[in-house]
Amino acid sequence: MIRAWTAAGQRIRVRGAGTKSGLFPAADVTLATEKLRGVRAYARDDLYITVGAGTTLGEMQDYLAADGMWPPLLSPWPDATVGGVVAANFNAPLRMRYGGIRDLVLAATAVLPDGRILRAGRPVMKNVAGYDLVKVFIGSYGALGLITDVTFKLSPRPRERTTYAISVNNLLRGVAWCKRLMRGALVASSVILCRNCPLPGVDSDYVLLYTAEGLPEDVQTEIAEVREALQETLPPTMVGIAQSGNDVWAAWMRTPPAHGFMLRLGFAPKDLPDAISLVLSASAERCAFLADFAAGHLYVRGNVDLRAVRNVARQRGGYAVVLNADPALRDSLDLWGHTPDALDMMRALKAQWDPQGLFNPGAFIV
């Protein structure tokens, strides 16, 4: 089918569950992956699982739950497909604890735009044979071909997970506390500062969320160190909550902007603290935001001057990507707004595998 469509010059849109492709332009053909689902192979002792790209993340996690295993992945949308999560390289804050998607994918199978089938990687922990081609498809937004199955590295589920929500009086204090806590974050799965994150028992505009997970003794030791570190300054109000910082991130991401944009800004983690106030100063109002200090990501929702925000990001060596937008603002919207250093290499690879530019057009920088 792919060979026939590209031979006829038809543009092909790849679609998983549609959770991340709402802003992409229309194409001649939509290729849905919902039938490419199910577990293809599962080796608990060898710590890997292979699933079809149309399998939802929730289905895979439910399948593994009985054995107390999981690939440490989270999406705001339970029906997000494995292929979509990998193609978008959509990482939750828990990356700081377990590594990112690129660290968890061992192998993948993909159909190239000319119909060739490419199998990259191996279901083993240490694979050094040849080029690590599987990484090419992680974050490619479907521009290089259709991912049909993915093999993930597995981990035991954490035995204990503890989250504290810490009320913060002002932005500068919250940023200072996050910087301080990052220095001792060994088993933390999120260090987040957010505004307009409604939580039970927390009534401040700003809240710092710290989640530690793993072995009980490690978690308890780290939480005790968090308490001690915060006592060095003005003692804050700490409230234990059932949700993890990653759960709060997921709920925040599921809330679309009533007006304006939802943006993801990326900086070197060391530059994020100084960049937060500069970015928020370019907002037309007190926008909701969530800062992931380990990843260097700042998510902003509301009325912002997109050009001004992107100028600030570029000056700090970062970028600003549009994740969602008010429908009135979507026409001719530049989703990416920046030129990555590897753009020439990306174009060369795209030209080699898809010279007509028919596969997932308008979905990626290339």
Number of domains: 3
Compute the CA-based radius of gyration. 21 Å
Sheet of most strands:
8 strands, antiparallel
Share in helix: 25-40%
Q: Strand arrangement, largest sheet?
A: 13-10-12-11-15-16-14-17
Report the CATH architecture of the largest domain: 2-Layer Sandwich
CATH class of the largest domain: Alpha Beta
Q: Which blocks of ≥5 consecutive residues have pLDDT under 50?
A: none
- Decide which structural class fits the backbone: alpha+beta
Strand content: 25-35%
Count of helical regions: 12
What general outline do the C-alpha atoms trace?
A: globular
SSE topology string: HEEEEHEHHHEEHEEEHEEHEHEHEEHEH
How much is the average pLDDT?
Answer: 91
Per the CATH scheme, the topology name of the largest domain is Uridine Diphospho-n-acetylenolpyruvylglucosamine Reductase, domain 3
| Head-to-tail CA distance between termini | 23 Å
Number of strands: 17
Structure description:
- The protein is of the alpha+beta class.
- The protein folds into 3 domains: 2-156, Uridine Diphospho-n-acetylenolpyruvylglucosamine Reductase, domain 3; 160-250, Alpha-Beta Plaits (2-Layer Sandwich); 255-329, Alpha-Beta Plaits.
- 28% of the residues lie in helices and 26% in strands.
- The chain contains 12 helices and 17 strands.
- A hairpin with a 4-residue loop joins strand 3 (39-43) and strand 4.
- Helix 10 (272-281) runs antiparallel to helix 11 (306-315).
- The model has no long low-confidence stretch (mean pLDDT 91).
